[in-house]
Amino acid sequence: MKNSTLKALIFDVDGTLADTERDGHRVAFNAAFDEYGIDWHWDVELYGKLLAVTGGKERMRYCVSDLLGSDNLPENFDDLVPELHAAKTRHYTELLSTGAIPLRPGVERLINEARDKGYRLAISTTTTPENVTALLTHTLGADSLDWFEVIAAGDIVPAKKPAGDIYVFALKAMDLKPEQCLAFEDSRNGILSSQDAGLTTLITINGYTQDDDFSGAALVLDNMGEPDQPFNVLAGDADGHSMLDCELLEKIHSTHNI
Ligand code: XBP
Ligand code: MG
Fold first, then answer.
1. If you measure from the C-alpha of residue 74 to the centroid of ligand 2, how many angstroms do you get, rounded to a whole number?
2. In this structure, which topology does domain 21-97 adopt according to CATH?
3. Helical axes 129-139 vs 77-97, angle rounded to 10°
């Protein structure tokens, strides 16, 4: 099963392609709570704790069960979650349409290079599909939706990250084996998911995930790097490179798939 050629790159979205959590999803959740008269405000610190659970609907239920309890919530809160989440998605996509959240350093450059070199691309995320469409459309342009052969997102699999199902779904849809791909993640739940699916994984950390356990990652970076903005290597061997490019990806892939 080893010694395969690198064929495809599979990207997580939130935290990896863009820093969406603190100033995007969190803000949209709060706007939905306001809209529905719910007496919650998820501040930056609390939201960090809530990120233990992936998926917005799951996160709201976790907030009740493990963090804030049900005081002052409507009696039918659990039934209201899907509707509340739909409002959150509306607020989030509206926010993205203003161009409020850019891609992280190196993301567009790496995607363009990978396309030029003929690598296949996919997305594997727990977020709602509309959110992926909005992010790609308002950063790379509407055409970019077609650059990704598979956009595996949201409730398409019942078990979200850290389960490996969403990566397995993407691999199946592309008819590829894990050793023919690399995964790009930013969080502990993300790498647990990609590793569960057997994928060699590269990490770019962010403010919420910088202290996460990334055991087994092929490389841990602060970002993907640009020609005028070299990355910092936090773990692993970048072979003297200062930004993530296809040559480095090939080296990492061959080192980890022999
Ligand atoms: C992303 C998430 C998502 C978003 C919210 O995790 O956890 O839940 O925060 O999205 P990952 P929805 O980057 O590991 O995929 O509200 O649309 O569920
Ligand atoms: Mg992520």
1. 31
2. DNA polymerase; domain 1 (1.10.150)
3. 10
For residues 215 and 32, give the distance between their C-alpha atoms in angstroms, rounded to a whole number.
36
Give the three-class secondary structure for 251: helix
pLDDT at 4: 81
CB of 25 sitting under 6 A from ligand 1: yes
Domain ranges of the chain: 8-18+103-256, 21-97
Dihedral pair phi/psi, residue 132, rounded to 5°: -70, -45
> Which residue ranges of the chain lie beneath pLDDT 50?
1
| Residue 143 is a catalytic residue | no
Q: What topology does CATH give the domain 8-18+103-256? A: Rossmann fold (3.40.50)
Q: How far apart are the first and last CA of the chain?
A: 9
Query: How do residues 63-87 score in pLDDT, each as one tens digit?
Result: 999 999 999 999 999 999 999 999 9
Please compute Rg for the chain using Cα positions: 18
Under 8 Å between Cβ of 231 and 238: yes
Predicted confidence (pLDDT) per residue in 178-196, tens digit: 999 999 999 999 999 999 9
